[in-house]
Write a structure and sequence with these properties.
The chain is mainly beta. The protein is 5% helix and 60% strand.
Length: 795
C-alpha cells in the first residue's frame, strides 16, 4: 500500500509537471510595428513576469492550464491588460501605443546634451545605477565611468566621499537635480553625505565632461552631473532593499508608489537608513533620508512636487594618516574625542511644471527651496583664549592664557529661487531652440559656539566667538539652438550670460572682520558641429566657462587682493558609434585655463594658506570607452583616458622656521603637473551570464600616479593603484513577487593597499647644514578586501 501511495503521488506530481505550459508572445509599437525591447509582461494570478528581448519577444515558463489576466507595460506607452487562457491556441501579439500623457524627460532636457549635441557625455539609466547601489555614496557608484577617480575619507565608501573627473574636483563640477542647482553657493562643493541613498530615487543621470552645455547654478568648470529623479510609474509597486557588509555596514530602504490613479495622479515615497563603522577607526556614519513625490499628469501638462531630506552624523576622519602611520596602522584615526562628529541636515523642496503649448512649444519651470543647518563639534587641546577673542582667565593670582575647549562650528543656510526654459521645434524639425535660465539666492549664517571649557574664564555656554553672514545672488539666462543644415549635418550654438552679487559681513573664525561685496558678469559662449553618418556621429565644439572665486578666496585674502575669476576655454572633438553588438566613443579634449586658482603655500596676514591665480595651465587628453557583446553570455566593456595636465610656470612658497624671524621662501617652478591629475585612468568590466537570471561581473580600475601638490615632486605623490571588484547578481520571479534580487559585491578582491586622496605641506627647520626641509604627507587609505550583500524584494 505504501508503495502504491508513493507511486500514485509521483504519478500525479509528474502529471502536474507535464501539464505546465509556456506562455510566449511579442510586443510591438502600434503603427510602426517596431519591436519594443524592455516591455514588461506580468501574469497576475501566477505572480510571474518577463521582459521582452531585442525582437520584442518574451517567454514565461511553467503556467498551469487556466485563465489569467496579463498586464503589458512600457515606459512612454499606454498600459494594456488582456485576459488569456493557457494553453494558448493562437499567437499572442500586443501593440502598445505611445501615451498621450506628457512625459517628464523635458524637465531636464534644457540642461542636457542629446545625441546631436557636440560635446562629450554619458547617460546612465536606472538599471545601470542600481547595479552597484548597495548603500555606498554616489561618487563610489560612478567609479567605473570614464576619467573618474573617487575617494572616501572613512575608506568604505559611506560617509564623506568625493570624486574628480579629468582631475577636476567637486567644487568645479556642476550638479543639478531636475535642472535645479545642488552645489553649495559659497564653497561650490557638493556634500554627498547629506543625501544618503539618493541614488535609489534617481531615474537617470547624465555626466557631461568638459564645459558641456549651459546649465543652472555653479560654473561647469570641468564636468557636470545632471540627475533626474524618479519618473511616472503607471502601475503600483513596492520595493524593500536590505544590505549588510564589512565594517558593520548596513542599509535598509522601503520604497512604494501608487501607480497612475484615475489616469492622472501619482504618489511615490522612499525611506532609508544607512549605517557603517567605517574602515578607519571610529569613522562611523549614521545616515537617514526620505523622498516623497506627488504628480499630476495630463495630455499636455505635468505638475510635480518633490520633497527629499537627509540627516547625517559622521565621526570625523578628515585629518587622514601621516606617512609613518600608514606603514604601521592603516585604520588609525587622529581624532579620539568621543563626539568629534559632523552633524548636518538638509531639506529640499521642488515644485516643477512641464507642458506643451501647441504643436511646436514646450515649457518647463520650477520653484525650489533648500533648508540646511548643522555643525561639527571639536575638542581643542590647550587653545589660547585670544584665539576666541577672550581675555586671559585669572584664577587666584594665576593668569591662565589657554585651556582645553570644546567648540561647535555652525552653518545655517537657505537657498531658494526658480529655473525655467522654453523649447521651440519647427514643423520640419530643422530648428530646435531653447531659451532658459534662473535666479537663485543663498543666505548663509556662519558662527561658532564654545560649549565647554576646562577653565571657563569670562565665557558662557554657547558663546559665539565668531559670527558672520553671506548673501549670494546668482542669475543666468541662456539660449541654445540646434540647426539641421543638410542631411546628417547640424550646427549648435549656446550663449549664456551669468551675473553674481556676493555680500559678506561679520567676524571670521580667526577673529578678523570680514566685510565685503563682489559682483561679476560672465559671458559663456559655445559653438559646435555634428555630423551623422549611418551608425556614427562625429562632433566638435568650442566652449568658454568663467568661474568666480569661492568663499575661502574672499574671506582668507585681503579684500584688496581678492583673486581674479578663472576662465576655461574647452575644445571637444570625437565620434560616437552604435552597432548591434557593440558601441564605442572616442574623443579628444583640450581644457585651456586662464587664472586657474591653486594652492601655492602662500599665507595671509594671520597664517592661513590662500589660493593664487596662475596665468596659464591646461589639460589635454584622449578618452576611449565602449562595450562589445561577444555572445549572449559574454560582454566586454571598459574605458581609458590618457592626459597631460600641466602648469607652465608658478611660484611655490615654503614656510621657513630656521631663522629667528618667520619668513617664507619662494621657489620658481616650470612645466609641472596639476595636483591630483593622473595621466592614465582606466576601467575594464567583464560580464558573464550563464543563464538569464545569473550574472558575474569582474570590474577593474587603474589610476596612475597623482601628485599631492603642483610641484611634480616625487616625494609628494600618491602611488598608482589597480583594484578589482567582483559582483554576483541573481534574480528570480517567484509567485507573489515581481522579482527577488540577490546582489553580492566583493570589493578590492586582491586586497590592494591604496590611497586615492591626501594632502601635503613642507617647511624649513634649523639643521646641521643651517636648515632642513621637512615634508609631511597625509593620506586617506581605502579598505582592503570587503563585501556588501544585498537583497531586494519587488512587488
Amino acid at each position: 500500500m505504501k508503495k502504491f501511495v508513493v507511486a500514485l503521488a509521483l504519478s500525479l506530481s509528474s502529471f502536474g509537471v507535464f501539464a505546465q505550459e509556456d506562455f510566449r508572445g511579442k510586443v510591438i509599437e502600434a503603427g510602426s510595428g517596431n519591436a519594443l525591447q524592455g516591455a514588461s509582461v506580468w501574469v497576475q494570478e501566477a505572480s510571474k513576469g518577463g521582459v521582452t528581448d531585442e525582437s520584442g519577444e518574451f517567454l514565461i515558463r511553467n503556467l498551469s492550464p487556466g485563465d489569467y489576466s496579463v498586464r503589458i507595460s512600457f515606459v512612454g506607452y499606454g498600459t494594456i491588460r488582456r485576459d488569456i487562457s493557457i494553453p494558448m491556441t493562437e499567437e499572442f501579439v500586443i501593440e502598445l501605443a505611445f501615451t498621450d500623457l506628457m512625459t517628464e524627460e523635458f524637465i531636464v532636457s534644457a540642461t542636457r546634451a542629446s545625441d546631436l549635441t557636440p560635446t562629450t557625455f554619458q547617460t546612465l539609466d536606472k538599471e545601470e545605477i542600481a547595479k552597484r547601489n548597495l548603500g555606498q555614496d554616489i561618487p563610489i557608484l560612478l567609479n567605473f565611468t570614464p576619467s573618474v577617480v573617487s575617494h572616501s575619507d572613512a575608506g568604505a565608501g559611506i560617509g564623506y566621499t568625493g570624486l574628480r573627473i579629468r582631475g577636476t574636483d567637486q567644487t568645479r563640477i556642476n550638479v543639478t537635480v531636475n535642472g535645479i542647482p545642488l552645489n553649495d553657493a559659497e564653497s561650490h562643493g557638493v556634500f554627498w553625505v547629506n543625501m544618503p541613498d539618493f541614488a535609489s530615487s534617481v531615474d537617470n543621470l547624465q555626466i557631461q565632461r568638459g564645459v558641456g552645455t549651459s546649465t543652472n547654478g555653479a560654473a561647469t568648470f570641468g564636468a557636470s552631473l545632471n540627475f533626474q529623479t524618479d519618473t511616472r510609474q503607471d502601475e503600483p509597486y513596492a520595493q524593500i532593499d536590505n544590505s549588510v557588509g564589512s565594517f558593520n555596514s548596513r542599509r535598509h530602504s522601503v520604497k512604494a508608489g501608487s501607480g497612475l490613479l484615475n489616469d492622472r495622479f501619482t504618489v511615490d515615497a522612499r525611506l532609508s537608513r544607512i549605517y557603517s563603522d567605517g574602515y578607519v577607526d571610529r569613522a562611523f556614519s549614521d545616515l537617514r533620508s526620505w523622498f516623497v513625490s506627488a504628480g499630476f499628469h495630463s495630455e499636455n501638462h505635468v505638475l510635480k512636487f518633490n520633497a527629499f531630506s537627509g540627516r547625517e552624523q559622521t565621526y570625523q576622519s578628515w585629518y587622514g594618516l601621516s606617512e609613518a602611520q600608514l606603514e604601521t596602522d592603516r585604520t588609525a584615526n587622529f581624532y579620539t574625542y568621543d563626539n568629534e562628529t559632523d552633524n548636518y541636515g538638509q531639506d529640499h523642496y521642488q515644485l516643477i511644471y512641464a507642458g506643451k503649448i501647441g504643436s511646436n512649444w514646450k515649457t518647463n519651470f520650477a520653484l525650489h527651496y533648500t533648508d540646511g543647518a548643522g555643525y561639527f563639534e571639536q575638542f581643542r587641546e590647550d587653545d589660547a583664549f585670544s584665539d576666541y577673542g577672550l581675555p586671559d582667565a585669572i584664577v587666584g593670582e594665576e593668569v591662565i592664557s589657554s585651556t582645553d575647549i570644546i567648540r561647535r562650528r555652525w552653518l545655517d543656510n537657505d537657498f531658494y529661487g526658480f529655473v525655467g526654459s522654453v523649447n521651440y521645434i519647427s514643423d520640419d524639425g530643422k530648428w530646435d531652440v531653447i531659451l532658459g535660465g534662473g535666479a537663485n539666492r543663498y543666505d548663509g549664517d556662519h558662527f561658532g559656539e564654545i560649549i565647554w571649557a576646562r577653565v571657563a574664564g569670562d565665557t558662557d555656554i554657547r558663546d559665539r566667538y565668531y559670527d558672520n553672514n553671506a548673501v549670494k545672488d546668482d542669475r543666468n539666462i541662456y539660449a541654445k539652438a540646434n540647426l539641421q543644415v543638410s542631411s546628417g549635418l547640424y550646427l549648435f550654438g549656446d550663449l549664456q550670460f551669468r551675473g553674481i552679487d556676493y555680500t559678506f559681513f561679520g567676524v571670521n573664525d580667526d577673529q578678523r572682520v570680514v566685510d565685503g561685496q563682489q559682483s561679476y558678469s560672465f559671458f559663456n559662449p559655445k559653438v559646435g558641429i555634428t555630423f551623422e553618418q549611418g551608425n556614427r556621429t562625429w562632433y566638435a565644439s568650442y566652449a568658454v566657462a568663467n568661474r568666480e572665486p569661492t568663499r575661502g578666496d574672499f574671506i582668507d585674502n585681503p579684500l584688496d587682493e581678492v583673486p581674479r575669476p578663472e576662465k576655461l576655454n574647452n575644445v571637444e572633438a570625437g565620434v560616437r558609434v552604435k552597432g548591434n553588438r557593440f558601441q564605442y566613443n572616442a574623443n579628444f579634449y583640450l581644457m585651456d585655463y586662464r587664472d586657474q586658482l591653486i594652492l601655492t603655500g602662500q599665507i595671509n596676514d594671520v597664517g592661513a594658506y590662500i589660493r593664487e591665480n596662475v596665468e596659464e595651465s591646461y589639460r589635454v587628453g584622449i578618452e576611449l570607452d565602449g562595450a562589445y557583446k561577444v555572445s549572449d553570455k559574454w560582454t566586454l566593456g571598459g574605458n581609458i583616458a590618457f592626459s597631460q595636465n600641466r602648469i607652465p610656470e608658478f611660484t611655490e612658497y615654503i614656510d621657513d622656521y630656521s631663522t629667528e624671524i618667520f619668513q617664507q621662501e619662494s621657489i620658481q617652478h616650470t612645466d609641472t603637473d596639476i595636483a591630483f591629475s593622473p595621466s592614465l585612468v582606466g576601467s575594464a568590466i567583464i560580464e558573464f551570464k550563464p543563464v538569464e537570471q545569473l550574472s558575474f561581473n569582474l570590474l577593474s580600475k587603474y589610476v596612475g600616479q597623482q601628485y599631492l601638490d603642483n610641484t611634480s615632486n616625487e616625494d609628494r605623490a600618491l602611488d598608482a593603484f589597480f583594484t578589482t571588484d567582483l559582483q554576483l547578481s541573481y534574480s528570480i520571479k517567484p509567485r507573489f513577487f515581481e522579482s527577488i534580487d540577490l546582489n553580492l559585491m566583493v570589493n578590492n578582491i586582491f586586497n590592494e593597499l591604496y590611497e586615492p586622496n591626501g594632502y601635503t605641506f613642507s617647511y624649513f627647520i634649523p639643521g646641521d647644514s643651517g636648515r632642513d626641509l621637512i615634508t609631511e604627507n597625509f593620506y586617506y587609505p581605502q579598505a582592503g578586501t570587503n563585501f556588501l550583500l544585498g537583497l531586494s524584494l519587488k512587488f
